[in-house]
Amino acid sequence: MNLKDFRRFFPPRKAASHKGDFGKIFILAGSRDFPGAPYLASMAALRAGAGLITLGVPEQLYPIMAYKLAEVMVRQFPGVNNGALGHQSETGILSFLKTQNVLAIGPGLGTHSETQRLIRRVVLAWPGAKVIDADGLNALKGNASILKKLGTSTIITPHPGEAGRLFNETVPADDAGRKKFAAEKAAKYGVVVVLKGHHTVVAARGRDVYVNKTGNPGLATGGSGDVLTGIVAAFLGRGLEPFRAAQCAVFIHGLAADLAVKKFGEESLAPTDVLDFLPEAFKKTSNRRKG
């Protein structure tokens, strides 16, 4: 993909657009131990053009998230003693999801047994478009067959470690092996696979595998994946079909990092820098507005 391709796949906003045209995104993320992940995912969705964003967090995390995220609606759900979401959250989460278009689940949720059980129940119950990342994928460790029940509007975004745990396999290190691995998993489980890393791979059943060429080693730091999750969710919300949403998201994510690295360098590049350069990346890809 190049800038011309992105412009072709990513429609410009119409002059008469309203926030409902760009999706209602529900991000289920965070725990007391990982308060940064929900912030990064939410801000990325905002910077990527989501219409309405709601962040769902454990009650212990609500005050700080409500303070930090002025442009995002924050909802609190019952947490267990360690500050993670517990089983008592399920009814409220599923009820609220009925009003949403896209679910992004996983960043910073933690690995408490109650939380993992909750994640499995939510992704199985929600039939709509969803992005599963980080601890959302860790909750499926040893249960990869669940993916077959989630449908083709599901996008998973593992790094090699998460993919290895999920599928109980070693992920190849070479580009050709990674491409084959992602394609095989997408074909077998019927979901879109975004295998992160140097030259992130996007694969879906019946589609040519996409190997992304934007990005740099500065992205190899905690939090970069949370930013990508928010972008993917935003692109689903504006109506891109899942494979294209994932493809465009990894491209713009890497492009923002390439712009940011010119200022900060690879060693000092932070996920918040990528957030800050998303507007510049979108300016480079912008289409002329439709009437």
Compile the SSE list and pairings:
Blueprint: H1 3-9, E1 24-28, H2 36-47, E2 52-58, H3 62-68, E3 73-77, H4 90-97, E4 102-105, H5 113-125, E5 129-132, H6 135-138, E6 154-156, H7 160-167, H8 175-189, E7 192-195, E8 201-203, E9 210-211, H9 224-237, H10 242-268, H11 271-285
What is the CATH T-level topology? UDP-N-acetylmuramoyl-L-alanine:D-glutamate ligase
Classify the helix fraction into a percent range. Answer: 40-55%
As for the number of domains, it is 1
Q: Provide a count of the helices.
A: 11
Q: Biggest sheet, open or closed, and with what strands and sense?
A: 9 strands, mixed
The side-by-side strand order for the widest beta sheet comes to 3-2-1-4-5-6-7-8-9
Tell me which CATH architecture applies here.
3-Layer(aba) Sandwich
Highest CATH level, the class: Alpha Beta
Uncertain segments: none
Radius of gyration: 18 Å
- Summed over residues and divided by their number, the pLDDT gives a mean of 96
Strand content: 5-15%
Write a concise keyword list for the protein shown above.
UDP-N-acetylmuramoyl-L-alanine:D-glutamate ligase; alpha/beta; nine-stranded mixed beta sheet; 291 residues
